[in-house]
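Example complex used in Figure S2.
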Amino acid sequence: MNEYDNPWLHRLKWTYLLLVVLTLMIPVLYVMYISFNANGFGANDYVFTLEWYGLILSDEILIGALRWTLTLAVVVTLIAVPMALLAAKYYKTADKKLFVVFLLLAPLFVPPDILGSALLVSFKNLNAVFIWLGDGLGTSLFDSWFRLSFMTAAIGLIIYTLPYSFVVILITMGRYRKEQTEAARACGANGWRAFWDIEFPQIRAGVFSACAFTVILVFNEYTRTSLLKGGFDTFTTVLISQMLNTGMSPQSYAMSALISFVAIAVIGSIILITLIRAETLARIARGKPEPVTP
Amino acid sequence: MASTTSNSVGGQTNVRSVRPVLRERLAPWAFRAPLIFMVIFFAIPMAMTVVFSVFERTMFWMEPGFTLQAYENFFFSARLTNFLNSMKYSLISVVICFILGFPIAVFVRKSIPLVAQHRVVLLFILPFMVSEIIRVFALRPVLQRNGLLNTTLTNLGIIDEPITALLYTHTGVVIGEVMSFLPFIIFSGFLAMEAVPKFIFEVCDDLGVGPWRRFKDVILPLAAPGIFAGSVFIFVNGLGVALLPNILGGAGAVNAGLIATQAISALDFPLAMAVSAIMMATLMTLLWIGHKLFDLTKILTPLS
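Predicted assembly (598 residues):
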């Protein structure tokens, strides 16, 4: 706040800001509230229970779906985040920045159903082409490369999560000064050592945030996964098909709440860690003399 | 050339085996790998939608050929009306998001200390990171006839009869779009406001310029690229996210995403591809217009 501002107006604006956050969160909080009610939605009396959560954890289909979701999340993170890191490093030195950034950020602007449909039809056609190719060569080696499977779902999700990781990593890289890499190289370190020992520790926070984002995005995603997956179900696809077919049951409230709890826990801890780290760094910085800037 | 510099800079001569040379040759390609991946699995499939859209429809799939049947199906049916309608409601959502969200971005940039700004914006990551599907579904128990909003308003004595227009109508879809995409206008507005230095507010105050003129003549032109990018994002997603009309909309609430997914369920793949191609054309046209008007590369300044 600066001295021109009216303190009451300032407080009013803060209230508005927090009110907007609260409004955005209310549906989710309400679902969480309902999920603990033994009588479900719309009942007159509220009886606290963990029964619905117990039902989820004893449902084998759901546990299987949860396992698929986690596997998908881990695989996509392990591929997409290093790719985003490579892309960010490439972007920093690229000549045609516009092309690079357009290609990497465009998936953000393509709606899920459109991306999903386009990839679905492409994969089906690619699969047909590969089978035709295999038939021509007299081999069945290519037959199942692009059949809808875990891999096709993973590819779709990598395209979806890569832009987010790319932006997060690029923002943290903005604070890194490349003279440090030059210094390391001048001291005889090879490219990898200079990256791993000097640059990576400084962008680690961004890379970890990108990992957390990717895990959450994959965990939350429904449309792309459901269009591109093979014969398996993820947590959200089970949930949404239940909701669309039979409406909201107490169990679906509990499942929705569970997904939200996971996301909030992960993001909440990132925000907390960031705040604590910023505090510690500020405390350390206060004890040091001002750095010399060129 | 690379080997001579690294030898002389290190001040030592090292014996080079074949492996490091090979590695140095491969390394530049490793950095290009993400781009190659995106070209193969994103750019080409999106471009191929145009080709697939003119293929002939067969019973369960499609076969190469040239027919404009899919476009005819789209342009000479209720689909076009639905599409244009969803454009209208999507535009309304963009305007509401802007009115509700952009002042927050300005407030954060103007009145909150630099170190705290990112933390305040992080607050909006929280609702954004809860699955969009869950947030959209969660609107049902809130907006329903006997939902949270209606019961609260009735208990407070503000209304006598529950409002039923909130769900399974176009209003429901607009509410869903605003609730889903509001964080985006705040993020993009926040990035856009990077182009508006803080002292501009003080200069305006010193010159006695009122808030409206300051917004119209100073902030808006400077922050236009970011605002435009955020608005295009919301507009296109309002057109393309099938679940919004599917879950919150009633009769006639059909957007491009829903037409595409319904076509896929009906095994009419060329139609789905035609809708995708039309959506991509809409998106590209909007981005091109935006680029001509405001030079969208300006948004990237904080990134490079």
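Chain A touches chain B through 92 residues (CB under 8 Å). Residues 59-286 of chain A form a domain with the MetI-like fold fold (CATH 1.10.3720.10).
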